[in-house]
Amino acid sequence: MISPILALFIAALTATRVDAHGYVQEVVIGDTHYTGYLPYQDPYYPVPPERIIRPIPGNGPVTDLSLIDVQCNGYTDGGVVGSKPAPLFAPVAAGQDIKLNWTTWPDSHVGPMITYLARAPTDITQWMPGDAAVWFKVAESGKTADGKWAATDLLSAANSIYTFTIPPKLKPGQYIIRHEIIALHGAFEYPGAQDYPSCIQIEVSGTGNAFPTDGLVSFPGAYTEDTPGIVFDVYDDPSLPYPIPGPAVWTGGN
């Protein structure tokens, strides 16, 4: 157990920092609720709780898109180089919805929400993708025709819950979900866009055999300062459409 003094310290730290940015605090699959990795609580337990989300150093962003931090989070400048595998994974059926509950997201941090998958060739609780091109996009939401942003307007309207569907014909196996918000309030130059990635470990069941043969990308590598949507001035002309970064959404498993 955490001591009362340490609990008060963590609560104060959380109150002062969580409002600034955010992360996925809970994953819901069917009737099962999985607590996310809580960066201001989990590391302080004598025995850290086991999670399905890979560890993150805090609620801050990744701005250098050439770093391994952009894959599953990290803080290389502070000595936390990338993330590491989580000890657990969640079972999910192909075609099932997954709900990701974000901490309160600031209204100023407009931007897209993007979701990728990567199939683990070995035990997912040990696998590190490195710089391999193994990621394919399964969902994205950017800016609507009437100017509403996924990370602020749409997420807020959904009570901070983002929902996506595992492709119904996806080949069974263990996968990492890489889910992110890219905040664009400072993206008028590079570096400026703020990436908030989170990696969730799952095991997909089903009878499908669909898997992409092209369009796979790496992290780092998928985004650079020249990628459309990474440098984007949200204030210059609010009527402009927004080009969501990364490859097209893979639809072969639908």
Q: State the helicity in percent bands.
A: 10-25%
Q: Quick one: overall form? A: globular
Which range does the strand content fall in? Answer: 15-25%
The main pleated sheet reads as:
5 strands, mixed
Number of helices: 3
**Annotation, overall tally of beta strands:** 9
Low-confidence stretches: 1-19
Compressed to H and E, one letter per element, the order equals HEEHEEEEHEEE
Overall structural class, as computed from helix and strand content, comes to alpha+beta
- Provide the gyration radius in Å: 18 Å
Order of strands across the biggest sheet?
3-9-8-5-6
Distance between the termini: 45 Å
Mean pLDDT: 93
Plain-language structure description:
β1 and β2 form a beta hairpin. The protein has about 250 residues and is of the alpha+beta class. Mean pLDDT is about 95; it is low at about 1-20. The protein is built from three helices and nine strands; from the N terminus they run αββαββββαβββ. A five-stranded mixed beta sheet has the order 3-9-8-5-6. A four-stranded antiparallel beta sheet has the order 2-1-4-7, with no helix packed on it.
